[in-house]
Every structure is written in structure tokens, then in C-alpha cells.
Design a protein that fits this description.
CATH architecture: 4-Layer Sandwich
Structural class: alpha+beta
Number of domains: 1
Radius of gyration: 19 Å
Shape: globular
Distance between the termini: 28 Å
Strand content: 25-35%
Number of helices: 8
Strand order of the largest sheet: 1-2-3-16-8-18-5-4
Length: 285
């Protein structure tokens, strides 16, 4: 297995985190090469492949190598005919937006309001602004490793209260009233602050913003202050990779050990269009 892995040409996205996979064309890659791409993802926490020419069928086939694609809570911006592909865009066609605009701004991990959050998120760049619209990834494992033993002991065992209703009520770009069906499908959940990666047991400081309503057994104001403090810690520059998009980029990250955020851009000057896909995950522990 190790000898096979050596065949894949990569370079780190940042020291100790992520891998840009070089000289691989996903439209012609052999199954052995694709297996190595999957291995690289699980090993490095994030992968980048540039200059890819992906139809919806190709990208669904690729993401299915990592697991079963996940559905989207919000369905109004899924690609027609492809309900697993969600459109991020500021384009308006015939008076209607074709995608979600400014979605994903603010440090978070996807689907953390579910009992089984998504394992990974993939973005494919169809149209990108010349400036802005970067995606930033924070390495939660490196952040955990940087804690002192005393800090680790203090945080171990803490449980975060995640709430989709809280998220939708407080998000500037998404604020809206949930239907009773959406409330029924998205009850509040509780996840550990320190998460164990199932692949190799590495620990992640798995804090998030947006969905977190509090910490179990802690007064709300104190809990949210601690959450803010920890998010600031995890998202220090030394733990963060900043990706500048090019058309044809595929960036995929492991939500079990990262936080991410999008950045704003001049949406009066530029257009942006991305396809977002998720892979089903398991219950955090």
C-alpha cells in the first residue's frame, strides 16, 4: 500500500496539512490512481486537484468513491436533475437566483446540526471572481495538538449543543422561518467538543460557529464565550490554509478534522458559480 501511495505526486497545501494532487486527470485516471486519491484524502485532511473538466455525471462518480453522497437540507438551489449537487452562485436568471449566495461565510463544519454530520465537503469551481471568494480551511488536529495537557484535560468531555433552528434564526445570509417538517427533520443534537477521527484515532478540536447554541451543563453566556475563544484559537493563521480559486479546481476537505469558511467578493463586479457536494458521515465520538 505504501509503495502504491508513492506513485501519487503531491505537495502540501500548507506545512503538515492537506495535499495538492498533481498530474491527475480525473476523466482518464485509472482505478488504482483514484484509490490513491481517496487514500490521500483520508491521510491529509484535504485534497486539491486543479484543471479538471467535470460534468455533473463525472463529479458524482468521483465523489461516490469516498462514500454515499448526502442530500441537502435546502433543496431550492440543487442542480436540475442532480439533487445531490448544490449550486453556489450570485447569478440571477429570469429574475430568479440560480444558487445560494454568500453561503458558508463564517467558520463552521457542515451538517453539524445532524446526528451524523457529513464526512466531507467538495467544491468544484465553474466560474470564479478575479479577487475574493477564497475558501479557508482550519486544521483542527493541529490546533488540538497545540493545546497544553491542562487545556486538553479541561476541554475533554465537554459536549456542544448544536441546533439547526438556532442556526437559521441567527444567520445573516440565511435567516428564515422553518417549516414544521424542517423542524421535525432537524432536531437539536449534541456532539463532543474533542472529536476522534475514526481512521487513525487523531484528535480534533471540533468547535464550530452558527449551529452551536451552548455547551451541555454550562451557563449559556459562559459557554458561548468559550466557543468564541476556541474558534479564535483554531483559526489562527498558523493553522489555516487559504485557497485562491481557479476554474476547474476541486477542493475537498474532511469535516471531521477541519473548520472552513468562505470569504466575500464584489458581487456587483464579478460572478461566481460553484458546485457543492457532500459525503455522508457517521456519529462523532
Amino acid at each position: 500500500m505504501e509503495m502504491q501511495a508513492l506513485k501519487l505526486k503531491t505537495r502540501e497545501l500548507k506545512p503538515g496539512f492537506g495535499a495538492e494532487i498533481l498530474d491527475v486527470d480525473l476523466t482518464t485516471a485509472e482505478p488504482e490512481t483514484l484509490d490513491q486519491v481517496v487514500q490521500a484524502f483520508h491521510r491529509h485532511g484535504a485534497i486539491l486537484l486543479r484543471k479538471q473538466d467535470m460534468t455533473p455525471e463525472r463529479i458524482l462518480s468521483f465523489i461516490s468513491l469516498f462514500g454515499e453522497p448526502e442530500d441537502h437540507t435546502q433543496t431550492q438551489f440543487t442542480l436540475p436533475g442532480y439533487p445531490k449537487i448544490y449550486i453556489l452562485s450570485n447569478r440571477v436568471v429570469d429574475g430568479k437566483p440560480i444558487g445560494a449566495h454568500n453561503d458558508g461565510v463564517g467558520w463552521h463544519t457542515d451538517y453539524s446540526y445532524k446526528a451524523e454530520p457529513v464526512m466531507s465537503t467538495m467544491l468544484y469551481a465553474v466560474e470564479v471572481p478575479e479577487e475574493g471568494s477564497d475558501t479557508m480551511l482550519a486544521d483542527c488536529c493541529a490546533a488540538y495538538d497545540a493545546l497544553t495537557d491542562e487545556e486538553k484535560a479541561k476541554l475533554d468531555g465537554l459536549v456542544l449543543h448544536h441546533s439547526y433552528q438556532h442556526f437559521m434564526a441567527t444567520r445573516e445570509f440565511l435567516r428564515g422561518e422553518l417549516t414544521e417538517q424542517q423542524k421535525l427533520e432537524n432536531p437539536d443534537v449534541f456532539h463532543p467538543l474533542i472529536r476522534t477521527h475514526p481512521a487513525d484515532g487523531r484528535k480534533a478540536l471540533w468547535v464550530s460557529t452558527g449551529t452551536v447554541k451552548g455547551i451541555e451543563g454550562m451557563e449559556t453566556e459562559k459557554a458561548l464565550a468559550l466557543v468564541d475563544e476556541l474558534v479564535d484559537f483554531v483559526t489562527q493563521e498558523k493553522f489555516v490554509f487559504r485557497h485562491k480559486w481557479q476554474v476547474g479546481d476541486i477542493l475537498m476537505w474532511d469535516n471531521r478534522c477541519t473548520l472552513h469558511t468562505g470569504t466575500l467578493y464584489d458581487d456587483k463586479k464579478y460572478f461566481r458559480q460553484m458546485y457543492r457536494m457532500w459525503v455522508k458521515g457517521d456519529r462523532p465520538y
